[in-house]
Amino acid sequence: MLKDIKEVFFSKEEIQGMVSRIGKQISEDYKDKNLLLVCVLKGSVCFMSDLMKEITIPCKIDFMEAKSYGAATVTSGVVNISKDIVYDISDYDILLIEDIFDSGRTLEKLTQILSHRNPKSVACCSLLDKPERRAEGVKLELKYTGAQVPDAFVVGYGLDYDEYYRNLPFIGVLKPEVYTEIKE
Ligand code: IMP
Ligand code: MG
Q: What is the whole-number distance in angstroms between the Cα of residue 32 and the centre of ligand 2?
């Protein structure tokens, strides 16, 4: 697995620094609110599990799954919800927890869906932000982010290529030869 990595963008320690900074800020901003963290599966599992431990105020957690990618490294543009929150969210301040904000369509769609259920508020937190890739018409802005990344396909710390590499403890880019074929 390590032999497939061309370059490390963020080490385990650098990621931990970002996560801890975001956790502190959330704890401050939401101290008088009713926080529900919603992890966007699967890419955000590592971020979510580390971030929730850096949050020092009471909160609940839940999970949603949205799919806009298959094996390809380019977005299909269509976002499907394959796992949803089942209970009433009207009493909660929702914070969507995402791994990477790319075209922006996933978080925009999830924000729209959740807003229709009349929560107290909905905001978005993404560990990484790829501003160059934002799709036309996407207006959503992140409330919290760890770092911006250039237009390169990154893996590790939850982020996958064809479902692999999620278990790398750092975030990096793959060697070009690893992308043998694009299946979509
Ligand atoms: P968006 O809807 O285009 O913003 O895409 C969001 C989803 O695409 C993320 O949750 C990731 O699962 C996936 N994605 C986007 N860029 C990357 C990347 O560089 N590496 C791995 N997954 C990515
Ligand atoms: Mg993915």
A: 33
Q: In CATH, which of 3.30.70.3040, 1.10.10.10, 2.60.40.10, 3.40.50.2020 is domain 12-149?
A: 3.40.50.2020
**Which pLDDT score, from 0 to 100, does residue 69 have?**
55
Residue 102 to residues 20, 33, 107, 133, Cα–Cα distance (Å): 22, 28, 9, 6
- Check pocket membership of 51 for ligand 1, CB cut-off 6 A: no
User: Which ligand approaches the C-alpha of residue 127 most closely?
Assistant: 1
Indicate the domain borders of the chain. 12-149
Average pLDDT over residues 33-45: 98
Averaged pLDDT, 124-131: 98
Read off the amino acid at residue 101. F
Q: How many CA atoms lie within 13 A of 97 on its CB side?
A: 28
Q: Quick: pLDDT tens for 78-111.
A: 788 999 998 899 999 999 999 999 999 999 999 9
Give yes or no: 102 in active site: yes
